[in-house]
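Design job #97: recover the sequence.
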């Protein structure tokens, strides 16, 4: 059978796998808000605690726990209550078999029809989107989606020891990459996206008043224009991969 040419109109479960607390909120919180409003259950999986981030004098041993709490508050702002952390070290991610297994485990636990993650491709025109951790998580998540999570013989301990059956993800949405073929109009949930981002006090409190919203609306307006939305609309954009 040919693969679909457009994303499913509705899915029951989505898993978002990102490298750091706040990654999902900068790129996708508006989209997530539209999903939860439509009744989709959304789970967040953060691979690191973001312990290498921040712009103030917060002691390093406190930054990880602080950012976990910020991410939980941000998730609540867009209707997400299931937030998981894998506890890998911030800034030192590599596409290891252990990481693939740990992401595969969460996929088999959540059993999502759709997975959202970061693009594994470098975005030369916007290098800030291509943090090595972002690219590593995108590549590792794609490897977990295909073939690991759907293959009952990959990481057999997940089935033998944890009772986690194989699961096939139908769609992967990639954000922050050099290409996009699908846009989500998030104009009407901008306030929820901003509330989520402002929950990350350790990451955004250094921005001058109004600058964060100006930055966000500027690039989301560009996304909307590039994908043919009417003037004045705001959009988050993704590359949608159908995995069969």
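Job complete. Output follows.
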């Amino acid at each position: 059978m040919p693969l679909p040419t457009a994303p499913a109109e509705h899915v029951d479960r989505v898993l978002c796998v990102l490298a750091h607390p706040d990654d999902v909120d900068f790129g996708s919180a508006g989209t997530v808000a539209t999903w939860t409003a439509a009744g989709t259950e959304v789970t967040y999986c953060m691979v690191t605690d973001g312990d290498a981030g921040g712009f103030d004098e917060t002691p390093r041993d406190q930054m990880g726990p602080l950012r976990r709490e910020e991410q939980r508050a941000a998730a609540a702002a867009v209707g997400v209550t299931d937030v998981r952390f894998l506890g890998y070290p911030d800034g030192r991610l590599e596409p290891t078999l252990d990481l693939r297994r740990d992401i595969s485990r969460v996929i088999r636990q959540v059993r999502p029809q759709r997975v959202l993650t970061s693009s594994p491709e470098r975005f030369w025109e916007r290098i800030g989107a291509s943090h090595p951790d972002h690219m590593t998580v995108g590549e590792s998540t794609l490897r977990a989606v295909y073939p690991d999570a759907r293959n009952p013989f990959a990481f057999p301990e997940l089935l033998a020891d944890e009772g986690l059956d194989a699961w096939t993800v139908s769609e992967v949405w990639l954000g922050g990459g050099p290409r996009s073929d699908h846009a989500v109009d998030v104009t009407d949930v901008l306030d929820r996206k901003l509330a989520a981002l402002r929950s990350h006090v350790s990451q955004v409190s250094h921005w001058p008043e109004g600058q964060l919203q100006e930055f966000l609306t500027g690039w989301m307006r560009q996304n909307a224009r590039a994908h043919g939305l009417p003037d004045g609309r705001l959009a988050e954009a993704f590359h949608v991969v159908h995995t069969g």
